[in-house]
Design goal:
The chain is 61% helix and 0% strand. It is mainly alpha-helical.
Length: 82
């Protein structure tokens, strides 16, 4: 499910009502937009995301395949022990 759509209810009756409302135009099939966090500088947020994307790639390139395998196994073990 994308973030741009409304969350679909699990109850079949509620789901059919939602679909009917969307088809008749009573509601729009878009999730309400979250306002940007006004306490943060948006330019700084964008710059941080840009650096984070580059950092993961650079870290993976500098590691040996054996070390990457160790990290992946540790992560898989952590996921499966939950």
């Amino acid at each position: 499910m994308t973030a741009n759509r409304l969350k679909r209810p699990r109850d079949p009756v509620q789901l059919s009502k939602l679909i009917g409302d969307i088809l008749t135009g009573q509601i729009e099939d878009r999730a309400p937009e979250c306002p940007a966090d006004l306490t943060k500088d948006q330019a700084a947020v964008a710059l941080g995301r840009k650096g984070a994307r580059k950092g993961g790639i650079a870290r993976a390139a500098s590691m040996s395949p054996k070390r990457r395998t160790e990290i992946a196994r540790k992560a898989a073990k952590a996921r499966w022990t939950k």
